[in-house]
Amino acid sequence: MPVAGVVRLGPYVDPLRQWIPAIKYQRWSDMAELLGRQLGVALIESKLLDVSRCVVVPMPMPWQRRIYRGIDHALAIAGATAAELRAPLLQVLAAANGTPQVGLSQTDRLRRGGRSIRLRRRPGGWGLRDIQIVLVDDVRTTGASMQRAARVLRRARPAGVIAAILAVSDDRARRDRVAATRKSQPQTGLGGRASSPSDAPELS
């Protein structure tokens, strides 16, 4: 298997189901910081990781989408995770523009399977041989894109790839995500939304 292990904060239900879209569509960077830090703690507690020999890699976002949204949510989360682990943050992967995953059916997600993902070119390579890679994303639905990204990363011959995700989505949660993105405008706020990481309730 391309991924040696998976660490998550929880299923894609409230409150994560409210917080994660707010990071992506309302640029809630404070929450990205909070959840990314908690993901780092979960990785340490999982015992899957040698924190002295690891790097953190975000799932890639096409530059066009990053400009449109005003935030690279996976990068923001991964940056906080790297800070918690005291590990390097490397943008190793790149992705071509295309239909956002949330707008695709499960069949289309599996068919596309992250084929637009590739390694960025770097003189001398990335130096990832025998290093553990923590691959960070917000939500996993089918897992096809993350598996594809892990396969691409394995070309660099790391010790292994650990998937670190905020939430795992089932079919019902995926339908809710699609419905939310089809609204003409995102909501300006969330019920009980925290204004800073210290105000946000902790996950159980």
CATH topology call = Rossmann fold
Q: Using only CA atoms, what is the Rg? A: 16 Å
Number of beta strands: 6
Q: What's the arrangement of strands in the largest beta sheet?
A: 1-6-5-2
Low-confidence stretches: 108-113, 184-199
- CATH top level label: Alpha Beta
Largest sheet, in brief, is:
4 strands, parallel
Corresponding CATH architecture: 3-Layer(aba) Sandwich
Shape: globular
Helix fraction bin: 25-40%
How do the SSEs run, as a string of H and E?
EHHEHHEHEEHEH
A few lines on this structure:
The chain is an alpha/beta fold and 204 residues long.
Features:
204 residues, globular, Rossmann fold, alpha/beta, four-stranded parallel beta sheet, single chain, 7 helices, two-stranded antiparallel ribbon
